[in-house]
Write a structure and sequence with these properties.
The protein has 169 residues and is mainly alpha-helical. Helix 3 packs antiparallel against helix 4 and helix 6 packs antiparallel against helix 7. It has 2 domains: 89 residues, Serine Threonine Protein Phosphatase 5, Tetratricopeptide repeat (Alpha Horseshoe); 34 residues, no CATH class.
Length: 169
């Protein structure tokens, strides 16, 4: 879409974030009106609608829309966001194993600013499956990169949560 449309979508989200008590249905109506301006086959429509449903507490409505957006060819940064958000929604709707399947390949994706969100969401999905050590390992590994000190130690501790310690010779 064009920059004007992108700016209006961004403004709608800012307004929503600035007024957390805003009526959810009214916010979704704003997003629906913006989506109505898109071509019928645009992957941006279901993506923005999924985000709106998700952000207003309806993960169950969001998941099929994320799937539709990805199936229509949503790509790049928004596709990665869709996967992260869908994995979170899958977890919220009692399907964390699907979230793990969706996000595990993202660990090997080209690095970007969403890497820590991938790891945090995957950690939550793993924890929901009773795989707390794996989840904690991911969370500590992500955190370690941001520490002013102890990076090497924390990264090693994160690794040792899921890898057996090697005997010293």
């Amino acid at each position: 879409m064009n920059q004007d449309w992108e700016d209006r979508v961004a403004a709608a989200w800012i307004a929503f974030d600035d007024h957390p008590g805003q009526d959810a249905a009214r916010f979704r109506a704003v997003i629906d009106a913006l989506v109505a301006e898109l071509p019928d086959d645009s992957p941006l429509g279901p993506f923005e609608r999924a985000c709106a449903w998700d952000s207003t507490g309806r993960s169950d409505k969001a998941v099929p829309l994320y799937r539709e957006a990805l199936a229509r060819g949503l790509s790049g940064y928004r596709a990665r966001r869709a996967k992260i958000q869908m994995a979170s929604s899958l977890r919220n709707t009692g399907r964390p194993e699907e979230g793990v399947e969706l996000l595990t390949p993202e660990l090997d994706a080209e690095p970007d600013e969403l890497d820590d969100a991938v790891r945090a969401t995957l950690a939550l999905c793993l924890s929901s499956l009773g795989r707390d050590r794996e989840g904690l390992s991911l969370a500590l590994g992500a955190l370690a990169r941001h520490l002013p000190r102890y990076r090497r130690s924390m990264a090693a501790y994160a690794r040792l949560l899921v890898e057996p310690e090697q005997p010293r010779s």
